[in-house]
């Protein structure tokens, strides 16, 4: 019985696969060309550090092959549009609905057809490139395989994301035009909105910045921006976080495909030809698009242009999707929904502002990763007070020094401290931030200033407050054999009352002591 059931699904998928011969040919041409160019562009570069140490790392002489590979990942949209054409074509729907197959059988057969048309060629191309890269980079074969494997996992994640979004939108639309443009817009919004919200809202409202490497984790967990997982170097020694992001991305795409089944099974011939089958999908689609546009233009301080452009796009989509006669009441209803979306956006932004980026302002760095740590504190008023100190962690420094026998450094750094001493300094800095960073006095005027003027902090002249910036970052002096490519880059910006200036400067000086100014460090300056 199970064998017969699987055979039925296999036969149905074969039929869908044969019907998509044109798209199959296009995807094959692109993936084959991409694999050949990527394999030829892949190389192992050797760099000389400290004049003696040779470091081998995987690299690409060109990126045309990678570009074609991502194009092939995006071409899955055409495969989905063809395989799921029964949702938008009356004749195809009548034929498929007349077959002795349940909605579950049809859905599984279509997923199998999409996998054959799109996913399998990408997997085959990836295997070919990995084997070719391992042969070309036999000096560091393991590192080459790791690099290329993760790179093609990113490409696979992109392909699954495209397929999942297109399957979802096609299942919610009864007309092909709507299925196409909603897929494009939804894909862009799903990719951009997490990035925009985190970078333009959460970080801006909290004043806590984690650097590009850290912030990338927060918005690459779903969407086309998963490519941010790829570092700018061929070294993949610390991969747990990147692999986690890739796994989450792939899992979310698969979850969306699974959830879409419950939408697909409710579809029947009556829905074919209807632009938007479900009103809820239409409203969520429009709100997501408007939210993305509002976020972009609020950060760019172009509210007049932004609201106008958003309204035009909103009305155009509403008009295109409307098959019934458009009356004045219909038009006013659209404008009312637009206003509700704008009000909802403002409310969400207000909540984010008054909670310090939805609580993100409470985030603190707990420990250091590398052997060199830099602490700095800046106080901006009419005078600029700056503290800066670079430290070497004794335990990590000696460990890295011992593993780099070819590196010769004259003497030991004078600013060497133990890990326990550094942990104590970081704990004190965190306590200092907790003491002086207060968001309870934020008011509506502050919110207006941030939203309308794009400012990140309070206007210290009007409020008689001054801005403060405290940062903690670490790095390694031993790049040639560095075990950890990830680094901390923590910075928090906030303001304090002017009457607390002297107390703040005194407490900072106890953590980052004042020393003489030399070519490598600048400690405590007063500039008018």
TrEMBL record:
Keywords: Membrane, Transmembrane, Transmembrane helix. It comes from the Bacteria. Signal peptide: none annotated. The chain crosses the membrane at residues 23-43, 63-84, 111-135, 147-168, 180-202, 243-264, 276-297, 303-322, 334-358. This is Uncharacterized protein. The lineage of its organism: Bacteria, Bacillati, Bacillota, Clostridia, Eubacteriales.
